[in-house]
Amino acid sequence: xxxxxxxxxxxxxxxxxxxxxxxxxxxxxxxxxxxxxxxxxxxxxxxxxxxxxxxxxxxxxxxxxxxxxxxxxxxxxxxxxxxxxxxxxxxxxxxxxxxxxxxxxxxxxxxxxxxxxxxxxxxxxxxxxxxxxxxxxxxxxxxxxxxxxxxxxxxxxxxxxxx
Length: 163
Prior knowledge:
This protein is an all-alpha fold. The protein is built from 6 helices and no strands. The protein has a domain of 103 residues. The termini are far apart.
C-alpha cells in the first residue's frame, strides 16, 4: 500500500518562476548516478514539492540544456571510487563534482546566449538598426497613480478590470 504524502496536489501546471528553474537546475548540477527524466521528476518533487511532466521540463530551455550537459558528463565518468575515502574527502569530491557540473552548464548556457546575440546582431543589421539605437536605455514606466484630476462622478481608475 502506498502512503500518500501530505503535500497539496496542484491541479494543472505548477507555477514556473526563476526560483523553480534554479532549483531544478541545481538538482541537475548535483546529480550523480543514472540520470533519466523520470528520476529528475521524482527528485524535483522530493526537493520542491512540485511535480512536472517530462514534456513540461523538456520545454524549458535552461532545464533541457542542463539535463543534456549533465547526462553527457555522467556518461563519460567512471562511477568507481576508492572504498576507503574519508568523509571529509568525500565531501570535497562531491563539492568539486557539483562545481564542475555547474561550470559545464554555465559554459553551455553562455554559448547559447552568444549564439542568440549573433542572431540578434545579424537581424538588427538587416533592419538597419544601429548599435546606438539598440543601446538606448529602457523607458521608465511610472507605476504610481497619476495626479490627473478626475472628472466629477467618475470612479478612480484601477489596475484590475472589473465587468
